[in-house]
Fold this protein.
Amino acid sequence: MLDQLSSPLCPPGLEEAARARRWADVGVCGDAVASVGQRVFYEGEAGGREVTLMLTPETKVEAHHLLTPLPIAAFSHALPPTLLDAHATDRGGAVQGTVWVLPPLSLTSLQSLAGETRARLTAAPAEWERQTCLVLLQLVTGLKHMQAQGLEETCLDLTLAARGSKLEGHDPDHRLVIAPPAEHDAPLMSLCQVAAAAAQLFMGADDPLLRARTGSLAVPAAVPSRQAFRALLQLLHQEKAGSLTKVKCILELLLFGPESAGIQGKDPEEVEAVLQKWLDLERATLLHALIRGPLEASVLTKLHLLFLVRSNTRVLREAVKFFEEPEVTEF
């Protein structure tokens, strides 16, 4: 199931575009629409169809199914330096780099997406929480991936939000595009500070980067799961080796977990029994859905599937504590 959802699928109507294998097979239309790190995005054409092109001087780009929309075609080629990030090119001469052909995407900065989402905090707080948790879960997943590769610092500006456009059946939720840091990217922050800054950004805090660095973190009263977000920020401020893992558990529980009302006040054995019954039912529901047909390849579905496959009652039981206790406890 995971392999199926992690494999790039060519949307209907873009089969010809997916055959692009060289620079002559694609065309750039106009100026860059967005950039993140060394990666520059353009509206383009391939096989007579509208596409989004990503150009980068990186000779190898990882197509991680949770960290970026997957390309329908990718190839290496000598690229015009005028189309690349100014910091990453030498003047004159073509630059060997990578081209990704993507379905048509609507791209926006994380700051702009947070601004759009913040309005829902007072008008529709439950929807705000769902959208914010989904973005933060993607970001923390990306930061954990960087951590596993030995990276200790990055910056919030290395993240874009992408959403499918002009195609039927596109993912209604934003997918994050997370680029690795380069030498010219500054100022860099710790991975936990980047996650904390993003959380504060979506909560509407003034100067979220400064708040993340100094630890002056706050959760608005309008946030539905206020205690869980307080625990999340405290964990990030502690910056321990397992902080990102614990924060990921909290976000997964907020998005996909059971209602806490049926758990509060029970002893540990009862809680574990309730959680095991809930987890078994969720997995059975997923299996039934698979029998009826293939799952949609949305980012929400992928993250939900990973949660059900990898989670267990011990992790869930410990994560539930963050919703109830005023102080952060250890897993």
Q: What stands out?
A: The first helix runs from residue 2 to 6. The first strand starts at residue 26 and ends at 36. DSSP finds eleven helices and ten strands in the chain. The chain has two domains: 2-103, 109-323.
